[in-house]
Design a protein that fits this description.
alpha/beta, 4-stranded parallel β-sheet, 24 helices, 25 strands, about 15% strand
């Protein structure tokens, strides 16, 4: 495979003499000051505009500006009509539309589908500043504003809805967001490569309808070119007899609408995927396309939906993934393979573009909570090879880690020290989707290019994975010894199964970079749920805990682990939650807030939730059904087990324990889970009363770009906090 073209090697667009601008303009008045009569590209986003590399639209805007384009931003527009979408005039090349750093539905609703009262990406945290399914609404308004202007959608919301997907809020399978938004092109994942190429090609006069060859893009197709061989995805899994007599994989031809395709006689150019994978016989993947079940099929058949989810994830390695097509009515959506990850030099330059590192002056003294959280932190990498089934990082950023150089990271630390208002000498985080995957990769590039594993660390750490944390230790040491830096904290979630392979790393972390508490995410204690999450067992947690406590003691510090757990995940029985609650009490942990599973679009856990089948294995109709805790009362019970200490939950827990034959756990002794008395004024919360809940969607350090800008801050992970009970 030829190396991808450096995104900064393009010849700059003619308007480069106008740039860069202090802030990307949000008004005509700012454009006038810059001497612009129009914008080449206008970005529409559901977030407030913060000119910082942890905010995806700022990253995409600055990357396009570095190519010479005049880029404007319309942030959190009034979507009730098209007027606000004309604020900057007609864009010369295209509108770029995204919901923001989070999926708009996750941003607006809790796991119990209640409307959130706040929004971390809005001035002063005000809620209600973006619509449901913002990508669709914004795209429609852009089309109303200027009918013939191309529209490119991207970011976390478009990325996770690029194929037919289960929508938790409507309890149904929805079409790809591309036809629903009526956009011209969708870009997914880390999309700098695609968006830069799109801009230059449109700038040279090419029609957006002819841009069909870019990795990381999705478009609508009337037909499949004759030179392509269609691969039948059903031969990876064998779901069994499909209800409809027609095969969903046969190529449609321009025949009479009444002519039926014969399942027993598929077209000659349909090749079973198992044959292709095992015995390629000289066929080139360049001229093959995988047909996954049609929207109408997966909408009505949960087993086919689970099968499709499995195929999508198996085709996620950018070095071996093939294009896929999925029928939507009379047309296909064509999903090109994922983008090639950025090289270190490219990623360095992306993060060192001329960001102001503060919100746009338009917001005055208003506080934007998401910015307040990350303004003193540094994103050192992208991607995650953990493959946790409930997390959206893998679907969006991919499993191959993209690393910044040590020098670039240290320069950003110095930039925070020298330019960020309010800096007191403490760097709040050096991290990313995970804290300790920086510079970790497969030991053999050839193996990496052929690998289709869903995780590099489950069910155990792959023997081909480099887990050496020495470079990260050296980075920590250099960062904390920079002049003016008092302390460097590590706040991103730690992958403790990797950390325990490197005791020196754990010692360095615990001795110098923990601010009293360290968050880690075992997610559960029981093997059943953990196997569906693709998380390590508690044996690994106990090994890490022993190291953490030993090194804390040696450093003379009183420090605590904050473990995160998840309720109501597919595969979790009531007894699993009971055992987790007993573990929590035995270890004196009390959760302030609890994290309930939220079926985010396109994740493998969502396929489990919807189908009751396990896509981590070959999906078959006769496979054993998974238990999925779906009902409102069931989910409330699972959350109550995590907050066993809350008197409001005691009546529900007592009832459940009696039904489970565990009444011996009710009583007032230390060996009991809940007492047999009820404090006055508790336990009578009306049905439907809001309780504290937070959901993980994507992890903390991800800049949701068109690519979702970094992949995370992409959906800022919102998690519960657990505190050790005071002694």
């Amino acid at each position: 495979m030829l190396p991808a073209k450096n995104i900064f090697s393009h010849r700059k667009y003619w308007a480069h003499r106008f740039t860069p601008s202090p802030f990307l303009p949000m008004s005509k008045a700012e454009m006038d000051i810059l001497g612009w009569d129009e914008c080449d590209i206008i970005i529409v986003t559901g977030d407030a505009y913060v000119d910082h590399p942890s905010f995806g639209m700022a990253v995409i805007g600055r990357v396009l500006e570095a190519q010479g384009f005049r880029v404007g931003i319309i942030a959190q527009p009034d979507w009730q009509n098209a007027d606000d979408f004309r604020r900057l005039g007609k864009p010369r090349l295209f509108y770029g539309v995204a919901s923001g750093n989070m999926d708009s539905m996750v941003n607006r609703y809790t796991a119990e589908r209640r409307v959130r009262s706040d929004d971390a990406y809005t001035p002063n945290g005000a809620g209600g500043q973006r619509p449901d399914r913002a990508v669709i609404v914004y795209s429609q308004r852009c089309r109303e504003a200027y009918k013939n202007v191309p529209i490119v959608i991207g970011g976390i919301e478009a990325s996770l809805r690029r194929i037919a997907h289960f929508d938790y809020w409507q309890e149904k399978v929805r079409r790809s967001v591309l036809p629903d938004s009526k956009a011209d092109l969708l870009v997914y994942g880390n999309a700098e490569r695609a968006i830069v190429s799109i801009a230059h090609r449109l700038g040279k006069g090419e029609s957006i309808d002819t841009i069909r060859d870019l990795r990381g893009t999705v478009f609508m197709s009337q037909s499949i070119p004759d030179e392509y061989t269609i691969i039948d995805s059903s031969t990876i899994d064998t779901p069994g007899k499909i209800e409809t007599p027609q095969t969903p994989y046969a190529r449609k031809t321009n025949t009479d609408c009444g002519e039926k395709s014969q399942a027993s006689n598929p077209p000659a150019n349909v090749v079973p995927l198992s044959d292709f994978v095992i015995k390629p016989k000289g066929r080139s993947s360049i001229n093959t396309v995988v047909r996954i079940p049609a929207y109408d099929e997966v909408r009505n058949d949960p087993v086919l939906y689970s099968h499709t989810s499995r195929i999508l994830h198996l085709e996620s390695n950018p070095y071996n993934a093939r294009p896929m097509v999925q029928k939507h009515g009379s047309r296909d959506i064509w999903i090109n393979p994922p983008p090639i990850p950025l090289e270190t030099k490219e990623l360095d330059k992306v993060f060192e573009l001329p960001y102001q590192r503060i919100p746009h002056p338009f917001y005055g003294d208003a506080k934007i909570p998401a910015y307040e959280m990350i303004r003193f932190s540094v994103n050192i990498m992208r991607g995650c090879f953990g493959g946790c089934t409930f997390c959206s990082i893998t679907e969006h950023e991919g499993r191959i880690i993209q690393n910044r150089s040590e020098d670039s990271i240290l320069r950003e630390v110095e930039a925070i020290r020298d330019t960020t208002p309010g800096f007191t000498g403490v760097i709040s985080d050096l991290g990313g989707p995970t804290a300790n995957m920086w510079r970790l990769a497969c030991k053999d590039r050839e193996i990496e290019h052929h690998c289709r594993r869903l995780s590099c660390v489950h069910p155990g750490i792959c023997k081909n994975l480099n887990t050496d944390q020495k470079p990260l230790i050296e980075l920590y040491r250099k960062a904390r010894t920079l002049p003016g830096i008092k302390k460097v904290l590590i706040a991103s979630g730690l992958r403790y199964d990797i950390a325990v392979e490197n005791p020196d790393y754990v010692k360095e972390l615990v001795t110098h970079h923990v601010g009293g508490y360290l968050k880690i995410a075992p997610e559960h204690t029981e093997s059943g749920p953990l196997s569906k999450m693709m998380k390590p067992g508690m044996g690994t947690y106990n090994r890490f805990k022993e190291m953490f406590e030993r090194f804390s003691k040696e450093a003379g510090k009183e420090q605590y682990l904050i473990p995160y757990f998840i309720a109501a995940h597919p595969g979790t029985q009531d007894v699993d939650m009971l055992n987790l609650a007993i573990w929590l009490k035995q270890h004196d942990f009390r959760a302030d807030q609890v994290q309930a599973f939220l079926p985010s679009p396109m994740s493998m856990a969502t396929a489990m939730w919807h189908s009751g089948k396990n896509p981590l294995k070959r999906v078959r109709r006769d496979a054993e059904d998974m238990y999925v805790p779906k009902g409102r009362k069931q989910r409330r019970l699972h959350k109550a087990f995590l907050r066993y200490h809350d008197p409001e939950n005691w009546p529900l827990l007592r009832e459940a324990l009696r039904k489970m034959g565990k009444a011996n756990l009710i009583g007032n002794g230390k060996q009991h889970l809940v007492p047999n008395y009820q404090p006055s004024g508790t336990g009578r919360r009306p049905e439907g009363t809001r309780t504290a809940s937070k959901q993980r969607f994507v992890t903390k350090h991800t800049n949701s770009q068109f690519k979702n800008g970094a992949g995370n801050k992409s959906g800022d992970t919102q998690k519960k906090r657990s505190h050790r009970k005071p002694s």
